[in-house]
Specification:
Structural class: alpha/beta
Order of helices and strands: EHEHEHEHEEHEEHEEHEEHHHEHH
CATH superfamily of the largest domain: NAD(P)-binding Rossmann-like Domain
Radius of gyration: 20 Å
Distance between the termini: 29 Å
Mean pLDDT: 89
Strand order of the largest sheet: 3-2-1-4-5-7-11
CATH class of the largest domain: Alpha Beta
Number of strands: 13
Length: 365
């Protein structure tokens, strides 16, 4: 019997690219089921039809299932529920809410309760081989130093309800490892494609680029991080999807956590300098006191929640990821290899960045 994939979070930023890679690397009889909110059905169908045009072998292998992860049984209609329970072999759970300013109740309902409902379904799937769960490096919360892949709850506090609810959701996933064979991925800040800088959403680092593009050239740019050793861990979506698909197919991956982070992240100081020079501006001069920076962050054109990620020096261990990708040719390109492409794409696609939202690209579906 052929393999069958169930995916949540489609047609999100990462999910669309992930599906294409899965289709290209799967057997031609693999089926794909997409659990989609009713308001997203039209967009999901359009995304599938576009993928059919690009990859003809995808034709006839997909089905949109209306549902809602916040509801028991994922709100799946009874006629589809039996089919899924008999056929699904792999579940990719990407759906989550990523707004850094999200109220706690909503974040808990989507990120925690939604994940529990996915796990409940997985326990009933007759042919389940693996659940592939997308977490985030930011389950680490407010911690400095090196964050290891085998760490989760160590008494840390959190910057926002996005972080805390993703941490509680991953705790639930790990608690059920004995019942649901699971691979956990923790991406860092996910940006566009490293080959051309392309993206469909203008949050995270793109907001810094937009901020600099709007700032008069005569206005000096200060360094933003209070500690010059503070890094910002950015990974391109093509690396993230390639790594996930490769690791998901490997024996021995079940029961492990894989942090998809840059092993050599740039410091905020270097990033700001390269942004300025790449945009033909003078290099940053001086540094505002951190309390002043936090007070004027809205005036700087950045969401208040986003700048909090520049305060604490943190690095992410990628030992599992490096070991499982060894020999595959898949590596995380350094930000210096594609930052100029991000700048150019932002300048040439201003319509994508018209809305200055507060969504965060840490494992954005």
């Amino acid at each position: 019997m052929s393999a069958a994939v169930l995916m949540t979070g489609f047609p999100g930023f990462i999910a669309e690219r992930l599906v294409r890679r899965l289709v290209e690397e799967s057997e031609e009889d693999t089926k794909f089921y997409f659990l989609v909110l009713s308001i997203e059905i039209f967009r999901a169908k359009a995304a599938c039809e576009m993928l059919e045009s690009a990859v003809p072998s995808f034709s006839g292998r997909w089905r949109i299932v209306e549902g809602d992860i916040t509801k028991p049984d994922l709100g799946i209609p009874p006629d589809a529920k039996g089919t899924l329970e008999r056929e699904i072999t792999h579940v990719w759970h990407l759906a989550a809410i990523y707004d850094l300013a999200v109220p706690e109740a909503l974040a808990h309902r989507v990120n925690v309760d939604g994940t529990r409902h996915v796990l409940d379904l997985c326990e009933r799937l007759e042919r389940l081989e693996r659940l592939l769960y997308i977490s985030t490096c930011y389950v680490a919360g407010i911690r400095s130093g090196t964050i290891y892949e085998d760490e989760l709850g160590v008494g840390q506090s959190f910057r926002n309800h996005y972080e805390s609810t993703k941490q509680r959701a991953e705790e639930e996933v790990q608690r059920r490892w004995s019942k649901v064979p699971t691979v956990i991925f923790r991406p860092a800040i996910v940006v566009g494609d490293s080959h051309d800088g392309s993206t469909v959403k203008g949050d995270g680092p793109y907001q810094f680029i937009r901020f600099l593009s709007r700032l008069p050239r005569w206005v000096p740019v200060p360094q933003l991080a209070p500690d010059p050793t503070t890094t910002v861990n950015i990974v391109p979506v093509d690396f993230v999807t390639r790594a996930m698909v490769s690791i998901a197919a490997k024996e021995g991956a079940t029961g492990k956590v894989f942090q998809l982070a840059d092993p050599q992240p740039m410091t905020v100081r270097d990033l700001m300098t390269r942004l300025c020079t790449g945009m033909h501006r003078a290099k940053p001069r001086g540094r505002l006191p951190w309390r002043v920076t936090k007070r004027i962050r809205r005036a700087l054109g950045m969401p208040p929640e986003l700048i909090d990620y520049l305060e604490i020096p943190t690095t992410y261990d990628v030992s599992n990821t490096a070991r499982f990708l060894e020999g595959t040719g898949i590596r995380c390109p350094h930000l210096t290899e594609y930052l100029d492409k991000m700048i150019a794409f932002t300048a040439n696609n201003r319509q994508i960045f018209a809305a200055n939202g507060r969504r965060f690209t840490g494992a954005s579906a």
